[in-house]
Amino acid sequence: MAVGRDQADTATLQRGLALIGAAMVLSLVVVALCAPWLSPFDPVAPVADSFGNPFPPGPVHLLGTDELGRDVLSRLVHGTRLSLFVAACATLVTVLIGVTIGLMAGYCGGWVDTVLMRMTDVVLAFPLLLLALALAALLEPGLPSLLIVIAAVGWTGVARTVRGELLSLCERDFMTAAVALGAAPARLMLRHLLPNVATTVLVMAVLSTSNTVLLDAGLSYLGLGIPVPTPSWGRMLSDSQTYYRTAPWLMVFPGLAIVYTVVAFNFLGYGLLATLGGNRRTT
Amino acid sequence: MGRLVWSVVIVFGVTLLTFCVTFVVPADPARALAGPKADRATLEAIRAQLGLDQPLPVQYARYVRRLMRGDLGRSFVTHQTVLEAIFERVPATAYLALASLSIALIGGVCGGVVGAVRAGSSVDVLLLGVSLVALSMPVFWVGILLLDVVGYRLRLLPLGGFGVANVLLPALALAFGTGAYYARVLHTTLCDALAQDYVRTARAKGLSMIRVYGKHALRNALIPLVTLLGIDLAGLMSGVVLTETVFNWPGLGRLAVEAVFNQDIPMIMGTVLFSALLVVAANIAVDLVYMAVDPRIRRR
Question: What ipTM does this complex have?
Fold first, then answer.
């Protein structure tokens, strides 16, 4: 039947999406790891005599140079390092906080659940970027602050999803059996519930990585990321805005790098969501 | 009614969180509130005025009492009261947000309907790809690109300023991601609606395509989008901050960013608190609208 064929097509498409996403993420990781060998010039020091007058892309500087005579390609390649590092660390913290709160709310239920979920609602009421701005203004600029800021505002999605999954998991027979066998709450949460939400958490982690990359880029664009001269994509974009009439390449390439990264994690996330969601374990 | 009570609890939580960020996180709240250039006398005056030597619960009670009077403090850069500064900027932001939401809704509904009607076709796959990429573009980059291509190179729309033609570029930049998101959500809900029995009945009655899709399926599929409008207002405000910075738009977002650069803590916390309260208010409004458009909720 036509419906059957459509479903088969969709499944192939979604698996393809996940594979493309995985390949894109892998390419980013390779670039980040091999940054010193891949970048042709020093990313921080001026390498061309183009002060205030950026060179367009050419044979020597493949993506041109910026207003201080620094090689754009080298800065982009090193920017990958920073972007992925921040995204990985922040996502890890975000997921840890989110899973802990979600597990506690979903397992304990009752007033613990009410308090934790209202707390989530409160954080959700704040525009993420504004809350991040306020925190960033109060803390010393730098990597630790950036991670704290992103993690402090980003955990709500994971917490809500984990809690939602637990509500139905706690009703299942394997939980009744485990409780009857006298398993301690910690064991119930870590050995019985956590493995069952692992798939969802993995997907959420991948999807929230793309949000983290965007938030990090936004904060760097506003000048609240890692201080200069460390190359960051968001900062490169905000610097390029002065020169968009004469040197459009300065704004095109960092933007493309951000989009590539976010698309990579989104493809992987949505692909995984569709592929793993279809055959969820029925233990 | 129960929802309204919870909203009060959320408002309480919102004030508690802003209070903590303002008075508990900084090492010296008086210094943070008065600015780096304040002298000893000013600091002492602020400490006495805000009761910073009192225990935290007492400080919080005083803080809430000040908020109820509409006293969000005073900027130590412009010496304007924070509430005044916010009210000056609200119209510009509301204008931008409404223009952008309209564009996003029109684009999202068109994209969603076309994708759902032709579900599984190459058009659908293309729309899926385009919307995923659009969702992945940072709003400030879209803004800079629009400025460069439409504003500067093609000279179709003005680059800056404040007016009807001027709002189009920033609104478009802001609508890009939101529209793509609406298209995805509508695609899902519309596909669900099209699989329902009442749509089959409508088709079996021999109603035209337009009546089946427009009157029967779309109306029901649009309902979840109403809730999204409310939930998404917080996300929209985040986008507003970036868009206003790119286009130099004189709204709330720029006020916050300027305040951050001046280390103007009362102004930052004022705008943060104000936008959070705005989001809570919008969610209440959305709940009411939801009840109006979906009779099933009222009966529950």
Answer: 0.82
